[in-house]
Amino acid sequence: MAPDGSRDSSTERHLDARALRFALIFPVLLSAGLVVGGLLIGPQLPDGVVLPLGGNPVPLATFLVVGGAGILLLGAGIGSFGAQTTLPRTLRRILLGVAMALQLTVCTLFAAALLGQSEGGGLPAVRVDGYVMLMGSGLAMAMGVVLALTFKPDEQWTPADDQALAAMLDAAEDPAFASDRLAYFLHPRGSVIMMILLAAVLPGALLALLSPWILLALVLAALLVIAMLCATVQVDRRQLTVKLLGVIPAISAPCEGVDAAVSLDIAAKDYGGWGLRRHSGSATFLTSSGAAVVLRQNDGGKVVVGAPNLDLADELSEILNRRAGKTPQQR
Questions:
Q1: Calculated CA dihedral for residues 80, 86, 90, 92, nearest 10 degrees
Q2: Spatial distance between the Cα atoms of 100 and 325, rounded to a whole number of angstroms
Q3: Which of 192, 202, 266, 319 has the fewest CB within 10 Å, making it most exposed?
Q4: 65-97 pLDDT per residue, tens
């Protein structure tokens, strides 16, 4: 780890050694098992073996080399990607499961060809034994699913760990920084929600005489308006963010760009009204008049964010001022 607390890229692991060993060793053992089985059945195949895809008979050694190569190519080739820690955990599970299923399927296919063309059992020779292929393929799929569900990738250092480490370092320097995190949910008042719904339902009920789709469209539009007035407000050691419905980013204000933050009791009409507003480098999100935090930014812009009450507005402004290195301002 570097002296500044950041992770040294030269020591970062990009391979899950445990998963890589499994991805390489299992197909090798599977290929070895196919070779041993082929040698045991070899005396029953004096004229060679036809490959599963057809063609002229080839020597048993060639048949086993092709089968082993197919197992190694699919098993180790795809499975080794599942050991890459730079890939998402779910994708790594899927890759290892697919590798398991494919290499077992290839092994089953070549084993079914050996058994189908052998002279044992007094049955007529076939290019591929269907029963063996059916049972082996079912096992291959089941094993692939089981591996994908049970494999647990090694825990790796992530951006979330960087944030946690930085927070610990800040807390060591100043314990007040440890609590510099706040989140709350903003939504319209109940009376506002009822007003929006009535504004859609009453005319929609009359227009439904023409078409019921009009009523449905107006109700959906009203619900959309209400949804756009709901958002989560979060602040941490880096920035203030507002996300509509907790998902869609609407406002982002880095703490280092804050010149001052103050908690106020405001009227929404003085800042453009309800909802998300943007104008001349400024942004506001209010769901009603009342408690809010007004941020003045270094570039001259302004950000206004509502709060459920003045106590939360005070706490939010204190965090923003502290992270920006300014003296907290109260209403």
A1: 0
A2: 55
A3: 202
A4: 999 999 999 988 888 888 887 788 788 888 888
